[in-house]
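Box 4.2: Ligand-aware structure prediction
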Amino acid sequence: MKLWGGRFQKETDELVNAFNASIQVDSRMYREDIQGSMAHAAMLADRGIISREDNEQIQAGLQSILEDAEAGRVAFTEDNEDIHMNVETLLTARIGDAGKRLHTGRSRNDQVAVDLRLNLRREIREIQEDVLDLMEAVLDQARQHQETVVPGYTHLQRAQPISFAHHLLAYAAMLRRDYGRLADCGERMNLCPLGSGALAGTTYPIDRWETAKALGFAAPMSNSIDGVSDRDYALELLSDLSILMMHLSRFSEEVILWCSWEFKFIELDDAFSTGSSIMPQKKNPDVAELVRGKTGRVYGDLIGLLTTLKGIPLAYNKDLQEDKEAVFDAVDTVKVCLRVFTGMIRTMRVLPENMRRAAGGGFTNATDCADYLAKKGVPFRDAYTAVGNLVYYCVEHGKTLEQLSLEELRQVSPLFEEDVYEALRLETCMNQRKSYGGTAVTETARQIQEVETFLREKRAAE
Ligand code: ARG
């Protein structure tokens, strides 16, 4: 018979039994379910709602289930629907009547809410660590390429020379925000719904602060209806993970471009690329493509849950059971993506000569040429037009700006002198951009230090 079978005369339809069950998805919360039940039982005993002896039996019984589950020795069943009823049924089978007292003053509605918060709180910390690992890999590459000149792009057209370190550090900045968003999410969701009961609280003299504290929450949730029906934290996490995946996806897109023959800025390690079954020459960036592809899947998890939640009246409705599949899928996807992506970045080989060659074409020093004239007093807009004319001339004659003779340069302005060639050197162009946050070596060194400090602080706090 079902735990809730008292009111029923007939067995559940077989199809309904399977349809209604969530154990396939929520069994991964067995630790949190047991942890929550232990805290609840201890509190019930402290408040004299159940006896000390019952509590001792419950604690021992739950502990033995935990150990057996860790060792893969328990079989959860669909007949027991979800992790909550599976654990309770196992407990009662092991310790008898004391097990039947566990659910006093509690509902599965507050139970599932507390389990999911505990579970996601742990997952968030793991993902944060994975983010730090990726930041570290990005930082290691940046450290080695502070002097490596590469074209910076806008509209995917060569724009201005930058260092490869500067480009990579932009991703470090994004990842740092991702870390912060996850921390905010973890903090906001760290309130305890346990004790909300089915929706209205309970007549037993429970102590919600005791359970909240025992489970490491900052406080109990203030409204019992909100306690059982709120899933904002799941949405927030999905939003944060979507943004994080968007960053990985943009990075992936660049890696894919960079390792194409059209760019050849990097070479992926053999261990992080794949071949073709027919074309013998192929070495494909499948890892980056899959990360880019899986981004859509995480967005789907977010949009799916948003849509599920939008029409649900207060308080608990079974629709809410759909939350877990979405968040667990996103969590698993992000974790594997971060880990494999980190390995790919760590092992990729940068080809500085090719980057430098690309930066030498496409007139990436044209802005600097205009700035040269502007610094000699020509209004910037006029200097801009003069250099535009020069670029046109270069394109016609198959030359670059620095290949023009002084005579040719002076066709557009008499102010050009010998020192223009130094001003047009890509290294000069790059290293003169010393404005705060710019691409000069001094500024990338500052950024590297900033990220190092951040990593050191976060690692120390772990
Ligand atoms: N398995 C359910 C879920 O994940 C647990 C709560 C069920 N509560 C209920 N009254 N049916 O949402």
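In the box above, the bound molecule is arginine. The chain has a mean pLDDT of 97.
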